[in-house]
Amino acid sequence: xxxxxxxxxxxxxxxxxxxxxxxxxxxxxxxxxxxxxxxxxxxxxxxxxxxxxxxxxxxxxxxxxxxxxxxxxxxxxxxxxxxxxxxxxxxxxxxxxxxxxxx
Length: 103
Fold this sequence. Notes:
Layout (H helix, E strand, L loop, with lengths): L2 E8 L5 H14 L4 E8 L6 H11 L3 E5 L6 H11 L4 E4 L12
């Protein structure tokens, strides 16, 4: 079965991450693909990393990379591309600006 890697850069998104996770897993579960959610914490100073760790403990499809400081969205995407294991890769903002249904 083919696998999708979804790269999600995050910077101080403690409120958005749980909402995004709920919506994107709903959408991806309807597709006929395996998937991984690869969150890239870009030096957040809020509880984003803590939330990502909790999600990763509950769901083995959730992975994260955490930067020591803010390097910017491009660096986050690059790191995600280097660690993605899927046959297909997509990026999506965690703020739900683009609905996961577009996948």
